[in-house]
Design a protein that fits this description.
two-stranded antiparallel ribbon, Large ribosomal subunit protein bL28
Length: about 60
């Protein structure tokens, strides 16, 4: 399962984690993605949507 939102395209971001002694290691930040049933073109469809899109009402959930 890829960690990306089907609505806004938000995905994994990579960066560097620093320890107390300032040693570096690579790390990732993943978005909070949920599988939801949404209405797309009048039919229910399963989408992977980030919680920001869910809260802002960018999709209409299927019942």
């Amino acid at each position: 399962m890829s960690k990306s939102c089907d609505i806004c395209g938000k995905g994994v971001i990579s960066g560097v984690q620093y320890s107390h002694s300032h040693r570096q290691s690579k790390r990732k930040w993943a978005p909070n993605v949920r599988k939801v049933k949404a209405v797309v073109n009048g039919t229910p469809k399963t989408l992977k949507v980030c919680t920001r899109c869910l809260r802002s009402g960018k999709i209409q959930r299927a019942v």
